[in-house]
Every structure is written in C-alpha cells, then in structure tokens.
Specification:
By secondary structure, this protein is mainly α. The chain folds into 2 domains: about 1-135 and about 210-350, no CATH class; about 385-455, no CATH class. It is about 65% helix and about 5% strand. It contains 20 helices and 6 strands. It has helices at about 1-5, 15-30, 30-40, 50-70, 80-90, 100-115, 120-125, 130-150, 170-190, 195-210, 230-235, 245-270, 280-300, 310-315, 320-335, 335-345, 365-375, 390-405, 405-425, 435-455; strands at about 75-80, 155-160, 160-165, 305, 345-350, 360. The strands form 3 sheets. It has a two-stranded antiparallel ribbon. Strand 2 (about 155-160) and strand 3 form a beta hairpin. The chain is globular, with a radius of gyration of 21 Å. The relative contact order is 0.21.
C-alpha cells in the first residue's frame, strides 16, 4: 500500500492519510444532508431518501477513483450551486422532468470529458500564469473562510450593510465561536490532527450543553435507489438547442471550478512541480469529469471536486489514500446517517433580517473551514505585487472570487483583466493563446443574459 500510494516519497504514512481523510469527510459531510434537501424540494419529483443514497454512492465511487487512478488527495461529491441549478432552474424553472435535468448533467460531463481526452482542459490549465494560479488559491482560501463564517452564523445577511456580525446570544453561534477558538489553538500549537480533534470537541461540547441534538439512532438500512439511472435514459430528450445556454453555463462552472480547486489543493500540499504544474493533472481532470457523468446518472447532480479537501491536506494528506478514505466513509455513512447528522447537520437560528424562515448553520464543522481558509491564504506571498500587470488581475481574482460566492466568476475576472492589462501595455505576446480564448468565453458568459434579453 505504501509503495502504491508513494507514502515515503511524499513524506506521509497510513495514519496521517486516514486522519486527513476523516478530516476532509467531516468538513464536507454536510452535502449528505444538504443535497437531498435541495434536490428533494417540493415539486422536483425526486425523493429525499433516493437522493441521499445517490449522493453517498456517487461521492464514494468518485473519491475512490480519484485515489486509485490519480493518487491525489482531492475529494468529490455533489456540487453546491450545480444542484440548485438542477432543482430551481431546470426542473422548477424550465419545467424539465428530474430525469431530463439529470440528463443535462450527463451531457455536460461528457463534453468536459471529451476536452480532457483531447488534452484541451490540461492545456488551458498550463496556460494560466503563475500569478493567477496563486491568486486563485488565495481567493479560494478566502472563499472557504467566508463559507465557514457563514456556516458558523458569525456573519449573517443584513438589508442595509449586506453583511453583519451574527447574534452571539444564539447557542449554535456561540458553539461555533468556541470551536473556532479551540481549533485555532490546536493548529497554532502544531498538533497533528488538530482540525479533526477540534471538530470532535466542538460536537461533544454541543451535545453536553444541549445545542447539538444527540443522534436519533445508530443505523438505518432503508435504502432508496429510485433515482439511479434516470438521467442516462433521458439523454436523447435533452439534445436540443433550447438547452444549450444552460449546458454552457454548467460547462463553464465545472470546467474552471475544478481547475482552481485542484491547483489550490496542490499548492497547499506542496504537490506542485518546479514549473508550478500539478503532476498527473490529466488523470485528476478525467476522474472529475467522469464524476459529473456519474452524478447525473445516479440522480445526485454533478459530482465535482471539493475545496474542503484542503482541510485534509492541512492535516498532512498528500496521496490518493486520503481520497480513498473519504470514499469509504461515504459508503459507511449510508446506514449511519443518524450518527453523521450530529456532526455534519445544520441547526436553525432566527433570521436577522426579520424574515419568517430561519437561517441554518453548521457550528461543528464551520470552524474547520475558517482555519483551512487561513492556511490556504499563505500563498499570497508568492504573488509578484511589485508588477502591476500581474498583481492587478491577481487582486481582482482574490477580491471577486469570495464576494461573488463563485469560483468560476473570480477566475473569469482574473482572466479578462489579465488579458486587457497585458494588451494595454503592449505585451500581447506574454499572454498564451488559450488564455485569450478562455477570457473570451468568460466575457460571453458574463454578457449572455443581456444578449438573451436583446435577442428576445
């Protein structure tokens, strides 16, 4: 096993990889409950138990494949945002059946797979300048920290100032603040496994003080497989021109989200080569693109690479064994859903804007995301800030990625500004031809809604 995963070469061991896999799983386990809640929204036709089963199985297969095929510590599961497009845009908005909506995901995944097999996706990745690659890693770090603050309830929406400090009188918010202090203290002391220990301490303290409900049971073997295969059978029904804009939007998100996530994880784990490239990038991208096809076929929406993988890398995960452990834990979660919900579940707090619907926070795992965000931010020192033509696009990437709450949008702002600034300085030759194409596609994606309005 050590030889296959190259433990000694990457300075790790089985214990470290297992702890890293457990840490990654705990920080992304929320998807087991959030994905069924979104896809199982009233009117979609999808059953919540069916989506739960599909989510676990698709994530398990994708993670294990990533570990065995690419030997990279990157975990995959149904993507947030992508599942919302499926539920609210395709099914409830455009009136597609859930089978047709999942078929759209299958088609998009096949398109990305084709680009991987033709080496175009990896070529685009290699065309990105180092300054933007590091900026993407930093921006994603801020994005993760922002998600952690939001999930902790420490940052909440405000109608006047957009964001505000959360209500520290609420039990879940106080628990998250406690967990953040504990986790930061453990990590600052250099304790191995500090993040996962922080998660367990936070969960146990939450149960002791009645903030986190104890598990309702131990196991539940009532599996629902009703969603499996529906998306594949409906592929012929979605090969129509009217769906091209949605397929393109999904394609752009999937294409660039994974590239940014992969580089950020590799940079955090010091897995980049001397040229700043990710070894085995083609295998990583191939597994990710096929995972999208798998997710659509299973009825779980597109399975994609998770930036929460950075939490496992922060714990020392350096090989595909980390991903394999995450995959096995997703399989183990199938019957243990009542137990998993204690740590990965969400708790309600009052809506600070005065609305009737509560906000939902995940106080047990949120502190881990904030700490991981800090660890990924350290790449900011590698950006050449003295060179404005490199630094300004990097700054825009770092700024817009978390504030638009979208990895692809942040990358798009970086690409477009990089090209425009280089052209304005008469340095067009410093821009890779593929970067011009990628920037053009992003520009088209940004103005597409306005073009649709003019055309209609």
């Amino acid at each position: 096993m050590g030889t296959f995963f190259r433990f000694s070469e990457r300075g790790t061991n089985l214990r470290t990889e297992v702890v890293a896999g457990l840490t990654t799983f705990m920080t992304m386990a929320y998807i087991i409950f959030v994905n069924p809640a979104i896809l199982g929204t009233e009117g979609t036709g999808l059953s919540v138990p069916g989506v739960f089963f599909a989510t676990c199985v698709a994530a398990a297969v994708a993670c294990i494949a990533m570990g065995l095929v690419a030997n990279f510590p990157l975990a995959l599961a149904s993507g947030l945002g992508l599942n919302a497009i499926v539920a609210f845009t395709l099914i409830l908005g455009q009136g597609l059946s859930w089978q047709q909506a999942m078929a759209v995901i299958v088609v998009e995944g096949l398109l990305v797979t084709f680009l991987v097999l033709t080496n175009l996706r990896e070529a685009v990745l290699n065309a990105i300048p180092l300054s933007l690659k590091f900026a993407i890693a930093v921006g994603i770090g801020l994005f993760i920290a922002f998600i952690g603050l939001k999930n902790a309830g420490l940052v909440v929406p405000n109608p006047d100032t957009y964001l505000a400090l959360g209500d520290l009188t609420q039990g879940p918010v106080l628990l998250a603040a406690f967990g953040l202090i504990v986790t930061l203290a453990l990590v600052a002391r250099g304790l191995k496994g500090g993040i996962i220990i922080g998660i367990f301490i936070t969960g146990i303290v939450g149960m002791i003080f009645g903030v986190v409900p104890p598990p309702s049971g131990i196991v539940d073997f009532g599996f629902d497989t009703s969603t499996v295969g529906g998306g594949v059978l409906a592929v012929p029904q979605v090969l129509q021109l009217s769906l091209l804009p949605v397929i393109f939007a999904l394609f752009m998100t999937d294409f660039f989200d994974t590239m940014g996530t992969m580089f950020a994880v590799a940079q955090e784990g010091k897995l980049l080569d001397e040229e700043g490239k990710v070894p085995q990038a083609r295998r990583i991208l191939l597994v990710d693109s096929l995972a999208a096809v798998l997710g659509g076929g299973m009825g779980a929406s597109s399975a994609t690479s998770y930036i929460e993988s950075g939490s496992g890398v922060a714990e020392g995960g350096r090989t595909g064994m980390t991903s394999v452990v995450v995959g096995l834990l997703f399989l183990l979660a199938l019957p243990f859903s009542p137990l998993i919900s204690v740590f990965g579940g969400s708790l309600p707090i009052p809506d600070p804007t005065g609305g009737n619907d509560p906000l939902f926070v995940s106080p047990v795992t949120a502190p881990a995301l904030i700490v991981v965000g800090f660890l990924m931010m350290t790449a900011v020192r590698l950006i050449p800030w003295e060179r404005f033509d490199e630094a300004i696009p990097a700054f825009l990437t770092i700024l817009t990625l978390p504030l638009t709450f979208n990895i692809s949008y942040g990358i798009g702002f970086g690409f477009i500004s990089y090209v425009l600034i280089k052209l304005s300085r008469g340095r067009a030759g410093e821009v890779h031809p593929l970067l011009y194409g990628a920037a053009g596609l992003f520009a088209l994606a940004f103005v597409w809604p306005a073009l649709q309005g003019l055309l209609s």
